[in-house]
UniProtKB/TrEMBL annotation:
Keywords: ATP-binding, Nucleotide-binding, Transport
Name under which the protein is recorded: ABC transporter ATP-binding protein
InterPro entries reported in the protein's UniProt record: AAA+_ATPase (IPR003593), ABC_transporter-like_ATP-bd (IPR003439), ABC_transporter-like_CS (IPR017871), ABC_transporter_ATP-bind (IPR050166), P-loop_NTPase (IPR027417)
SUPFAM superfamilies per the UniProt record, alphabetical: P-loop containing nucleoside triphosphate hydrolases
PANTHER family linked to this entry: ALIPHATIC SULFONATES IMPORT ATP-BINDING PROTEIN SSUB, TAURINE IMPORT ATP-BINDING PROTEIN-RELATED
Top-level division of the source organism's lineage: Bacteria
Start and end residues of each ABC transporter domain: 5-236
GO molecular function annotations of the record: ATP binding; ATP hydrolysis activity
UniProt entry tagged with the keyword Cytoplasm: no
């Protein structure tokens, strides 16, 4: 099967007032349609930069980047994004927030409204469509942000530390939910996370990046079924995978 996302020899250097910052170096990476991929790496290694390039929010300096065979250009990203903060519009209700990617382009149709309602049903937020964001918990707001990212049926769902600000229990249950949403929608997902166990729980493939300039230093295929439950966290194979990834981040003192 041909890849949906193809990055080849990707480089990114930011020109700053105090000199160049080499953020990404020779990144080669393919993602198949429908796949769930996670990217882990030390702080500042260029993970968000990579996601911004995929989203068409940032240009790359060299190499090639394409989605569906089309070169990614800034401003044309066919993606949905979820950030650490839900960034919902406080004066709009949840239904209007979910419809935002569509209503920015055109007047939402009844089909669009039905799509938003279906996503809210899928994430157990059906009864909250008329509520304002502040009336929802942090976890519920992130679920609404995921609905908003999916409403325009993007080719790619990009998540940048989506649950980093939430408590551990909420985070676990949202991970189960993200696994279900991914299976039910068939979307292709890219997750950036600082949590190695979150990456192993959700992804089918994990790319480990080096310290800046970020390169891919390991690629791990996660052998579990597509459907994941929290029981997996106690599986010895789960522990073996997380410790293999952790070895990349161990500080060695010569
Ligand atoms: N707009 C920018 N202008 C200049 N330098 C930038 C810009 N954005 C990021 N950088 C630099 O590029 C490097 C990679 O940043 P990036 O945010 O992609 O890393 P990250 O891996 O996502 O970090 P973290 O895990 O801490 O969020 C850092 O050194 C950062 O300072």
């Amino acid at each position: 099967m041909s890849a949906l996302v193809e990055l080849s020899g990707l480089e990114k250097t930011y020109a700053t007032r105090t000199g160049d910052v080499h953020a990404l170096s020779a990144v080669d990476l393919d993602i198949s349609k429908g796949e769930f991929v996670a990217i882990v790496g030390p702080s500042g290694c260029g993970k968000t930069t990579l996601l911004k390039i995929l989203a068409g929010l940032e240009d790359h300096t060299a190499g090639t980047a394409s989605i569906g065979g089309h070169p990614i250009r800034t401003g044309n990203g066919d993606v949905g994004m979820v950030f650490q903060k839900a960034t919902l519009l406080p004066w709009q209700d949840i239904a209007a927030n979910v419809l935002l990617p569509l209503s920015l382009r055109r007047r939402p149709t009844s089909q669009d409204r039905e799509k938003a309602a279906a996503l809210l049903r899928m994430t157990d937020l059906e009864g909250f469509a008329r509520k304002r964001p502040h009336e929802l918990s942090g976890g519920m707001q992130q679920r609404a942000a995921i609905c908003r990212a999916l409403v325009h049926k993007p080719s790619l769902l990009l998540m940048d530390e989506p649950f980093g600000a939430l408590d551990a229990m909420t985070r676990d249950s949202l991970n189960v939910e993200v696994n279900r949403i991914w299976r039910e929608t068939g979307t292709t997902a890219v997750l950036i996370t600082h949590s190695i166990s979150e990456a192993v729980f959700l992804a089918e493939r994990i790319f480990v990046m080096s310290a800046r300039p970020g390169r891919i230093v390991d690629e791990i295929t996660v052998p579990f079924d597509r459907e994941r439950s929290l029981d997996l966290l106690g599986d010895p194979e789960f522990a073996a995978l997380t410790s293999r990834i952790r070895t990349h981040f161990e500080v060695t003192h010569a």
